[in-house]
Design a protein that fits this description.
The chain is about 35% helix and about 15% strand. The chain is built from 16 helices and 17 strands.
Length: about 475
């Protein structure tokens, strides 16, 4: 008769939302403790608010309103909107947040973080104006791209000073129990000391933060938005909407400027009309440039989406037997590459005489939360998945293919999904998977002969849960 596992950790993924919402459950000295990692649903998903209400009902029922640790990986709607949809409960009396972990990018007293927020805020403002153009029936597909990507971005407060979701979370948790984490930090949740967390990202390096795609070339690598570009796009969108422009000055000195209407009736009228007729002539449609600024808006939306993903807080939770559960948020290329820039912790100590390396950590991953709904550029191959060599590996993908198809997104990306299925011997669960098929795969291909991961599904399809056993209960906190 085999010896029972020393303990286990349950990871519940909420389904049907194309968003990240994970509830971890672990016993500490016989007392159940809970970690909530993100809680969001993509904007525009049918029935999103009702679904999120049901999810928060379940979270409250399981935890009794005690959230021992809340982790917010990054500021995208599909990771944090649940907190705002159910703000009366999360920020009222229904829940207690005992500890809050955020990336260093959320630290209000960090100068580098403040510069990033300034860029993102200006870009959000510009994209909000561009999306409004769709109401004018401009019909340009580039506006559609901006609109689709804006579904991931948390909207700006409409009245300016209103608090963001992150502000409210910080207030709820309180300053003493809010931590802003740096790459290379190694720490333990106050109420879950059995677990050790290694902070792998986001990087401090501007070069790493700016690297969003794996290869160079047009459309392959995008960078953080310049303030000037965001300012110009918002100004043009305001003009199209008939609003007060941001840029009052033109590139010519005032003595040389003439209002168009005045110029029409001046002595240059004939010359002006000739140019006008030539410009708007049907054979010259391909030469017109008045809509080209939308290329910049489309590119900026892509950059905003990727750059926010690259600020994801990446956590590797180590179990007592050194198994690792990897939660990378939506980290993209630069974030992943930066994991090799430091050890964990950054320096050796009495508690950690041999700091862990990226390769060591990835080789011990037994549960991988797949980044960005299994998109093409949120899981590295050579320096990521191929280093996850543990035969016990299982994967969870928060994706809903029907919603992704509506937006022409390849989620899950076929090549990556194939690689995941091969690496895990098929042990992959998704946000819209067939429970019967998933259970069959886990039964036919157990993750371990002695202590396999086990699978459970809610009868109503609300969640899927993986329980990861560990076989050693180490003494101390090393």
């Amino acid at each position: 008769m085999r010896e029972p596992a020393c303990g286990n950790i349950a990871v519940r993924m909420y389904r049907g939302i194309l968003g990240d919402c994970f509830l971890l459950r672990h016993d500490e000295a016989g007392q159940p403790r809970h970690i909530l990692i993100d809680c969001g649903v993509l904007q525009g998903v049918e029935g999103a608010r009702d679904r999120m209400k049901t999810i928060v009902d379940d979270i409250q029922a399981v935890t009794g309103g005690d959230l021992d640790l809340v982790v917010l990986t990054h500021e995208h709607h599909d990771h944090l909107s649940g907190f705002s949809y159910e703000k009366e409960r999360f920020f009222g009396d229904a829940f207690d947040i005992h500890e809050l972990w955020l990336a260093w990018t959320e630290d209000p007293n960090d100068p580098q973080a403040a510069a990033l927020r300034q860029r993102f805020t200006r870009t959000k403002a510009a994209l909000t104006k561009v999306v409004q153009l769709d109401a004018l029936a401009m019909g340009d597909p580039r506006i559609g791209t901006v609109q689709a990507l804006s579904a991931f971005i948390e909207p700006l407060p409409v009245d300016g000073p209103r608090k963001t979701t992150v502000d409210l979370l910080r207030e709820k948790a309180g300053g003493r129990t809010t931590r802003f984490l740096e790459p290379g930090d190694v720490l333990r949740p106050e109420r879950l000391p059995t677990l050790k967390a290694m902070v792998m990202g986001p990087p401090r390096s501007e070069q790493r933060l700016r690297k969003d795609a794996p290869s160079k070339g047009a459309g392959k690598e995008v960078y953080l938005t310049d303030l000037e570009e965001a300012f110009a796009v918002e100004d043009r969108a305001r003009r199209e909407l008939g609003e007060e422009p941001l840029i009052a000055e033109l590139p010519f000195a005032r003595p040389y400027q003439r209002p168009i209407d005045e110029a029409r009736h001046s002595w240059t009228e004939l010359a002006y009309e000739g140019v006008e007729q030539l410009y708007f002539a049907e054979p010259n449609v391909w030469r017109r440039i008045e809509g080209e600024w939308l290329d910049g808006a489309e590119s900026m939306a892509l950059k905003m989406d990727s750059d926010t993903n690259n600020t994801s807080l990446v956590l590797a939770f180590e179990l007592p037997d050194r198994q690792v559960l990897l939660f990378p948020g939506d980290a993209q290329v630069g974030n992943w590459l930066s994991w090799a820039d430091q050890t964990y912790p950054r320096e050796a100590s009495k508690e950690h005489p041999l700091p862990a390396t990226r390769d060591d950590i990835l080789s011990r991953v037994t549960l991988y939360k797949v980044g960005h709904h299994c998109s093409h550029n949120a899981t590295l191959r050579e320096f990521g998945l191929e280093k996850m060599t543990c035969p016990r590996l299982v994967a969870m993908i928060p994706v809903v293919e029907s919603v992704a198809r509506q937006n022409d997104w390849k989620m899950p990306f076929p090549d990556l999904l194939d690689a995941l299925l091969q690496r895990t011997s098929g042990r992959v669960v998704t946000g819209d998977g067939d429970p019967e098929q998933e259970r069959a795969v886990f039964a036919d291909n157990p993750s371990d002969d002695r202590y396999p991961a086990t699978l459970a599904h809610a009868e109503d399809g609300l969640w899927v849960e993986l329980t990861i056993p560990y076989e050693k209960c180490r003494k101390g906190t090393g």
